[in-house]
Amino acid sequence: MIRVLSMMMLGAALVLSGCSTVDYGDAQARETVTTDFGSTDLQMIAAKMVDDMLVFPPIVQMTQNRRPVLFVDRVKNKTTEHIDTESITDTIQSKLINSGKFRFVDMSVVDRVRQQLDYQSESGMVDPSTAAQMGRQIGAEFMLYGNLSSIVKRDGSTKDVYYKFTLKLLNIQSGIIEWTSEKEIRKTRKKSLFGL
């Protein structure tokens, strides 16, 4: 009897815990679960910005015979959502590097690079002939930066979200904005009568 009761409890536990599966999906597929900022929005923004930049005539001319050095500053998130804007700039940076037209310096690792340079030059543990020399890094010529903002409106069962992403390329020496572009996204969601 105890064995039967144990088997029944085990069976009930399995039924109550439910069976769930995890499937891999296409990372490039359109994602429309909510009106929140999502992967499709990130991919659309990155593609638009890179395409616009690479065909802008002064940029085409500037990159014809050389690969200018850029650094990416933080994108300001002016929305009410928690959005990882670094993911947006990482994708844009990857696409620009892979275009073969630009090079980047990474300002987010400056402190760690300095620690490594100090270690190589001061620890006595690194062969001086192979140690990287202080003051030999290449300075960035341009800064890439931008803003992500949104306007959210609700009317009864309808929610409308407008996103605007602006990206700019600043010439560090002259202070001139050499290029800028915007990408706009509008998402609307209507709740059904039953709130689903």
UniProtKB/TrEMBL annotation:
Listed GO MF terms: enzyme regulator activity
GO biological-process terms attached to the record: peptidoglycan biosynthetic process
Any one of the GO CC terms: periplasmic side of cell outer membrane
Pfam families, alphabetized: LpoB (PF13036)
Gene3D superfamilies given in the database record: ABC-type transport auxiliary lipoprotein component
Superkingdom, natural source: Bacteria
PROSITE patterns (UniProt xref): PROKAR_LIPOPROTEIN
Matching NCBIfam families: lp
PANTHER family: PENICILLIN-BINDING PROTEIN ACTIVATOR LPOB
Protein name, as recorded: Penicillin-binding protein activator LpoB
Source species of the chain: Alcanivorax hongdengensis A-11-3
